[in-house]
Every structure is written in structure tokens, then in C-alpha cells.
Design goal:
The chain has 16 helices and 13 strands. With 410 residues, it is α/β, with parallel strands linked by helices. The chain has 3 domains: 223 residues, HUPs (Rossmann fold, 3-Layer(aba) Sandwich); 76 residues, no CATH class; 69 residues, RNA-binding S4 domain (Structural Genomics Hypothetical 15.5 Kd Protein In mrcA-pckA Intergenic Region, Chain A, Roll), CATH 3.10.290. The strands form 3 sheets. Strands 1-6-5-2-3-4 form a 6-stranded mixed beta sheet, sandwiched between helices. GO terms for molecular function: tyrosine-tRNA ligase activity. This is Tyrosine--tRNA ligase. Its EC number is 6.1.1.1.
Length: 410
């Protein structure tokens, strides 16, 4: 055993609970013994630890996969520690090379500012805004200047930078690496110096950048932060990581009915991983629920509870309840209480053209494909004739399980 290593048997109840919460769903917590000592010091002195999460506003919206790290921040926030939500308005101008096989094109200042406007509002759906410190890394990065940047760059070697997996692969493959990309991990690490961070969180793809923070804090004479990496959440397919490009995501700004239905679409196996990474239920509560399912309770009950919890977090409890009822109505072949209404002209109108004009299909050819697949209903009856022309009148048009419209055709 290492000198000074703390055993679990020597932990107080409060520190033991904090460690358990820290480790829940975590990929790595490094170094764990240092984190325990920080927790013990915090408990003894009553001084909250400073816990940092940095997000670059590279897109205007986030999906629930991004909230895995935010959930961990909320759990640590509820223990009484200081949570710092860092918006990387400066680092975004460089572009994070993590996991990239090409140079990431930097965004313009206008794009960054537009995206940053939504980030805190979205993060506040998970974090407690009243107890969250909001910072922008341009606060200290802009004043650093050229001289300060050169002095910072002198604190790390090119050899160690090239140990980074994505840089190493690109170099061996003869792919370009721009010099400014070396600045990204340095600037992210310098954020930890500026904020005197005790713990920094990130996805597993951020490990190199997080360790850079530890190195630079030591270079600047500070106690190094610990790092905590969270796994990347699998999407609706249960295979690939959640991604808009793979269309296996749930956007946190999606309507409650769609959000609820998407959660219910995941597999029973994936459900428990989502519980661990996304639910605010305690480990004991999740274990008890899993035991009930293993003893014969319908797993759908647990999935409905998860769907309602996630939907309520990003909308409200009444809207989550309404989404559940909407799902029940749809599963019974019923029509939701509220569906879009629109007026169309041109009767008699071909069914594929109607689907396109109603926004239920992107094109007439896709409309015909949906009809061939049996996915189109008019007033609850399946449409099988692609040549169908509808006369003037009002119709409830359904595509798939979740798309409805009440069309008034003249």
C-alpha cells in the first residue's frame, strides 16, 4: 500500500458517501486517494471544493448525452461543493482537436456568442442556477497576450504533446496538425490554474486535456486538481454513442411527447445504464427497482418511470404526465388530444402530395415509401393505395406512431 493511502474503513460517513457519489457511473477518478484527502479536508474545515466543468459552445443545442457530466456536477453540487460552469468562449476560437483526424475549423466570434447564449439556460435544467458559478475563459485568456502565451507554451514539451493519441495517429498517417491545435490543451489546462480547480470533469475523450490541468497547476505552484471522466452515453440504438449525426439522440429541447416516447424505445438492457448515468435516483433506489424487475415486475414500469423523470427534468411534471397519457392513447390507436391543424387547398389532392404539404413527409417520393410500408393512416384506416386522391373535407392524418395532423382540405 502506498504511503499515506487512505483506506475505505478509515473514512467518515460523510466522506464515504461523497466518494460513493463521486464514483457512481464514473469511468475514472484520478488519483482517488488525493480526492479522498480533499474531501476530508473539506469536511474538517467546512470549505467547499471547487469543481469545474468546461464546455465549448460549438453548437447551438445539446442532447441528453451531454447531460451525463452535468448530472455528476449536480450530484457534487448537492453535497455542498462549489460548481463552476465554464463556457469556453476563448478555447472555441481554437477548436478542440480531441478525437479528430483533421483540423477542426474554428468558429467565428458571432457563432460562438450565439451558441453560448443557449448553453447556460440548458445547463440550468440540470444544475441549480442559484448555486452555480458561471465563468468565461476569455476573462483570463484574452489578457494573457502573446508574451503570456509563449511563457505558457514553455511549460510543456512537443514530445509529450505528441504522446496524445489523436495527434500521434495523425502524425503517423501523414495528416496535417496545425500548431494552434497544440494550444488547445494548454489553454484548457490554464483554465484550471485561473480557477484554482480541485476537480475537473469531462468525457473519456478529454482525459489528456484534464491531465494537462494537473500538470500546469503544479508548474504554477498550486495543488493539482483531481480528474473525473464520465463515459459517453450510448444512443437510442444502444450501440453508437449518442449523436445527432447518427440520429440516435434525444435533444433536451424536444417536445415532451417525443422525449417520453424516445426513452420508452430503448432496450431493457440499455435502460439500466441510462438509470445509472441520467437518473437522480439513488443507487439503492435503482438497485431495488432492478431487483423488482428481476423478480418478475414488468420492465416497462421501470422504463416509464425513467421516461417520466427525464421528461419532467427538461419540461415539468404535469407535461411528463401528459406525455405518458399521450403515449398510452397512441399505443391504443387513439389520437392525441392536441395535434396540429392546417388548411390545404387543391382538392382532390393526391395522398403523397398531401403528406408533403402537411409537413408529414419531406417529399412525395418519401410519402409513397411510407404508404408502401403501411405507415400512413387516414382517420385511423391504413392507406395502401398510392394513387388515392382525397376530396374536400377534414381528415386526421397519421404517419408512424408519433406524427399527426388534422387537415382541412378545400
Amino acid at each position: 500500500m502506498k504511503p499515506g493511502f487512505v483506506t475505505s474503513a478509515s473514512l467518515s460517513e460523510g466522506v464515504g458517501r461523497a466518494l460513493e457519489i463521486s464514483l457512481r457511473g464514473t469511468d475514472e477518478l484520478l488519483p482517488q486517494d488525493e480526492w479522498i484527502r480533499k474531501l476530508q479536508r473539506s469536511e474538517a474545515t467546512g470549505t467547499p471544493l471547487r469543481i469545474k466543468l468546461g464546455l465549448d459552445p460549438t453548437a447551438p443545442d445539446i442532447h441528453i448525452g451531454h447531460t451525463v457530466v452535468l448530472n455528476k456536477m449536480r450530484q457534487l453540487q448537492d453535497l455542498g461543493h462549489t460548481v463552476i460552469f465554464l463556457i469556453g468562449d476563448f478555447t472555441t476560437t481554437i477548436g478542440d482537436p480531441s478525437g479528430r483526424n483533421t483540423t477542426r475549423p474554428p468558429l467565428t466570434r458571432e457563432q460562438i456568442e450565439a451558441n453560448a447564449q443557449t448553453y447556460y439556460r440548458q445547463a440550468s435544467l440540470v444544475l441549480d442556477p442559484a448555486r452555480t458559478e458561471i465563468r468565461y475563459n476569455s476573462e483570463w485568456s484574452d489578457p494573457l497576450g502573446a508574451r503570456g502565451m509563449i511563457q505558457l507554451a514553455a511549460k510543456y514539451t512537443v514530445a509529450r504533446m505528441m504522446e496524445r493519441e489523436d495527434f500521434n495517429k495523425r502524425f503517423k498517417a501523414g495528416q496535417s496538425i496545425s500548431v494552434h491545435e497544440f494550444l488547445y490543451p494548454l489553454m484548457q489546462g490554464y483554465d484550471s490554474v485561473a480557477l484554482r480547480s480541485d476537480l475537473e470533469l469531462g468525457g473519456t475523450d478529454q482525459k489528456f486535456n484534464l491531465l494537462m490541468g494537473r500538470h500546469l497547476q503544479q508548474e504554477y505552484g498550486q495543488e493539482p486538481q483531481c480528474i473525473l471522466t464520465m463515459p459517453l452515453l450510448e444512443g437510442l440504438d444502444g450501440v453508437e454513442k449518442m449523436s445527432k449525426s447518427k440520429n440516435n439522440y434525444i435533444g433536451i429541447s424536444e417536445d415532451p411527447n417525443t422525449m417520453f416516447a424516445k426513452v420508452l424505445s430503448i432496450s431493457d438492457t440499455l435502460m439500466w445504464r441510462w438509470y445509472t448515468l441520467l437518473s437522480f435516483k439513488s443507487i439503492a433506489e435503482i438497485a431495488a427497482l432492478k431487483a423488482e424487475v428481476e423478480a418478475g415486475r414488468n420492465p416497462k414500469d421501470a422504463k416509464v418511470a425513467l421516461a417520466k423523470e427525464i421528461t419532467a427534468r427538461f419540461h415539468s411534471i404535469p407535461l411528463a404526465d401528459a406525455a405518458e397519457q399521450d403515449f398510452i392513447n397512441r399505443s391504443k390507436g387513439g389520437v392525441p388530444d392536441e395535434i396540429p391543424e392546417l388548411n390545404l387547398s387543391g382538392a382532390p389532392l393526391g395522398i403523397a402530395q398531401l403528406l408533403k404539404q402537411a409537413g408529414l413527409a419531406p417529399s412525395t417520393s418519401e410519402g409513397n415509401r411510407l404508404i408502401d410500408g403501411g405507415g400512413v393512416r387516414i382517420d385511423s384506416s391504413v392507406v395502401s393505395d398510392k394513387g388515392l386522391k382525397l376530396p374536400a373535407g377534414s381528415y386526421v392524418v397519421q404517419v408512424g406512431k408519433r406524427k399527426f395532423a388534422r387537415v382541412h382540405l378545400a
